[in-house]
Design goal:
Elements: E1 2-8, H1 19-28, E2 31-37, E3 50-53, H2 63-74, E4 78-80, H3 83-89, E5 118-122, E6 132-134, H4 137-149, E7 154-158, E8 168-174, E9 177-184, H5 194-198, E10 200-202, H6 207-218, E11 226-233, E12 239-245, H7 259-270
Parallel strand pairs: 1-2, 1-3, 3-4
Antiparallel strand pairs: 5-6, 5-7, 8-9, 8-11, 9-10, 11-12
Helix pairs in contact: 1-7, 2-3
This protein binds adenosine-5'-diphosphate and magnesium ion.
Length: about 270
């Protein structure tokens, strides 16, 4: 019997709605899954054939501790995604080093760019935390300086309003094979409720998006049980990478009938 940990966090609201779906699919494939908190001091990671990192949604405030845990767990079981991937992927400065087009990004409050509208966000973040959208250049610069004063790296980008028209496209790859893709709602548009943010619709990616997503994955060596490639378009229509989610992405598994089976199959291939 194969036993895998489904790595989660101490979630008071129980809002990981993909967990039961995944565990049921594993069970059908003969994989016993157990939900375990990444920071559970009692957890014996060596007892698992693999530990699959999923809803670790509290790592942002405790990144160093989380990365240290990943290396520890990864030394006694098969951690997916691997610790080295998690270490690199939890700080968005990785975007600077990828050989693919990304959203134009300025990385400090100095030499401040001049754009119509700004997005300013920290390099270590998730769920648009500490992220602002403003057309006030001084306010944008002040937010960037505040992040720096806190010892964080700011990311300053032009606001790309196509996220409200065509929308952001997320491509889901399991063991490097495309499973499905969705169109996501704009998180920084006014009047977005929590429910709007979670909503997405299945979408067929365009050829130029597929081409870019494959290039993005080719930049990352090693086992990738799951990868979510988030793409947007510049005003001239070119697709660019906004984020590569290799740590704790929501996988939009209920949006495509085949998705959870694709994930389970990919896990079987990597075990
Ligand atoms: N430059 C941008 N232009 C338009 N929308 C943006 C921009 N940057 C971020 N957003 C919005 O904020 C969301 C979160 O930003 P993202 O960079 O993906 O960080 P994270 O998901 O880790 O918080 C995106 O999904 C998108 O909706
Ligand atoms: Mg994102």
């Amino acid at each position: 019997m194969t036993i895998c940990a489904y790595v989660t966090f101490d979630d008071p609201d129980g809002n990981d709605d993909e967990r039961e779906l995944v565990l049921a699919s594993w069970r059908e494939a003969g994989i016993e899954g157990r939900a375990v908190r990444w920071d559970d001091p009692e957890a014996d990671w060596s007892a698992f054939d693999a530990a699959v990192v999923r809803s670790v949604w509290d790592y942002v405030e405790r990144r160093a501790e989380f990365v240290a845990w990943a290396h520890r767990a990864g030394s006694v079981t098969k951690l997916l995604n691997p610790a080295a991937v998690i270490e690199a992927n939890t700080d968005k400065t990785y975007l600077r080093d990828m050989g693919v087009p990304i959203v134009p990004t300025h990385w400090s409050s100095g030499d401040f760019p001049q754009w119509d509208e700004y997005v300013v966000k920290p390099a270590i973040s998730a769920g648009a935390k500490a992220t602002i959208r403003t057309s006030d250049r001084a306010a944008a610069k002040a937010h960037a300086a505040k992040l720096e004063a806190e010892g964080r790296t700011p990311m300053i980008q032009p606001y790309l309003d196509m996220v409200e028209a065509e929308g952001e496209t997320s491509l889901l790859y399991f063991n490097r094979v495309l499973s499905h893709a969705v169109r996501r709602n704009p998180m920084l548009a006014p009047g977005q409720t929590q429910a709007d943010l979670a909503r997405a619709e299945l979408r067929t990616p365009a050829p130029d998006q597929l081409e870019l997503a494959e290039k993005v994955l080719a930049e990352v060596p090693g086992d990738l049980l799951y990868a979510r490639v988030d793409l947007v378009r510049l005003p001239d229509g070119r697709p660019v990478l906004i984020e590569l989610e290799l740590t704790e992405p929501y996988l939009f598994l209920s949006h495509s009938e085949a998705a959870v089976g694709n994930l389970t199959r990919a896990l079987g291939e990597l075990l």
